[in-house]
Design a protein that fits this description.
Length: about 120
């Protein structure tokens, strides 16, 4: 498996775990793996099997496909964490509040395009 893919999966997993305020220990226990295994996945050192990926997705409430999307696009660990936190917050909003938040984000993005 390509190193970039392992790193992307690990980054997204770590970001989502942090956004949910879960420890590596909690994830390891929930997926019946060691903390070392969770750590190695997050650092992009190992590529987990599909069963493990499925369990991780369930624990982190993250669709399996989200771990693989836009693999060719490299993101910083900070950006991955912020994106994961944004998704967690969005999940808790009502449809109306989510629409308002989306409009605010779109305004911010348009402002950046004009300035940049």
């Amino acid at each position: 498996m390509a190193r970039d893919l392992k790193q992307t999966i690990g980054l997204r997993m770590r970001a989502r775990r942090l956004a949910l305020n879960l420890t590596q220990e909690q994830v390891a226990e929930a997926i019946d793996r060691t903390v070392e295994t969770v750590s190695n996945i997050e650092r992009g050192r190992v590529f987990p099997g599909l069963d493990t990926l499925d369990q991780i997705g369930r624990v982190l409430n993250l669709p399996l496909g989200a771990l693989f999307e836009s693999v060719e696009t490299s993101v910083s660990p900070r950006r991955a964490e912020l994106q994961a936190r944004l998704l967690v917050v969005a999940d808790a909003l009502t449809d109306i509040d989510l629409e308002i938040a989306l409009r605010q984000i779109e305004v911010l993005a348009q402002g950046r395009e004009r300035r940049g």
